[in-house]
Please model this.
Amino acid sequence: MRIVISEFMDDAAVADLAAQFDVRYDKSLVDERDALCNALRDADALIVRNRTQVDRALLAVAPNLRVVGRLGVGLDNIDSAACAERGIDVIPATGANAQAVAEYVIASAMLLLRTAYHATADVAAGHWPRAALSNGRELAGTTLGLIGFGGIGRLTGRLGRALGMRAIGSDPQLPPSASVWRDEDTRRCTLDEVIGDADVISLHVPLTLQTRNLIDASRIATMKQGAILVNTSRGRVVDEAALATALREGHLAGAALDVFAQEPLPAGSPLAGCPNLLLTPHIAGVTRESNRRVSSLVAQKVAAALGSD
Ligand code: NAD
Model:
């Protein structure tokens, strides 16, 4: 049985799979659609991250495909309906990168609230902007607003609460009676309440028709003066131009973005040069540890799915 891996995967997990199956591991396949199509003609399984577009056209060239492993959790690059019609199992790495994302959110929030960490070049050059940078805020005592209260939202809340934050959240798919709100000591709110009450807003929703542009200009306008926004979910959940305006005008005190409507972020984006803005290249969920966990979980589950047929 043949497995094609089109994006980076931990070497030990690839070796485990190669000991049991015929594996073609080629990280360049994600950028070479024709080569990927050729490789898939006799493939039983495909393993991807978030960049390989697993659409109907790709599935059509892979008549034997039975399993798609996803080295991560967002499924917006996979046509899940088309996979279901074909009886293809889609296997995400649920939970395996949550710690990495949650730590990214809390670390970003601390850096952004304190505002002092951009001073390295100034201090090294002999300047001493002490007065200007003595106005930062502490994380403890702030309200953390979690939009999307699944695996990553919950863990982020837990880390924030451990540091003295108060957690509130909105997730329409979790009714007020769901015990998780009480178990996680998190007040269930409407989306508008979270937006209006939180000092730090962190997005943990999947990209769907309902969440596309969820954080638009009108919602940004109702955020607290001086609030911080952290987006590790998907770029299209936030209106980037509206966010840039709110940062430049000082309505928001800072933002951290790990994901963008278009990745890589095109040159000339309105985000370039905004004050107190952290930009990272979609790595919130990727650490040495999470890469090992994600890769070994997906390798085990893909092997089990192929073996069990
Ligand atoms: P999850 O499925 O456990 O949780 C998502 C939650 O969002 C669910 O509880 C769902 O009910 C809720 N939700 C759906 N629509 C909503 C809406 N309109 N308003 C509020 N809540 C809504 O997923 P997760 O593991 O917590 O991951 C969340 C997202 O984070 C993923 O879909 C992925 O896009 C993103 N992600 C990014 C990285 C990264 O490296 N930047 C890594 C992992 C995950």
Notes: The pocket of nicotinamide-adenine-dinucleotide is lined by residues 72-74, 97, 101, 147-153, 170-173, 204-207, 210-211, 232-234, 258-259, 282, 284-285 (CB under 6 Å). Residues 288-307 form the longest helix (20 residues).
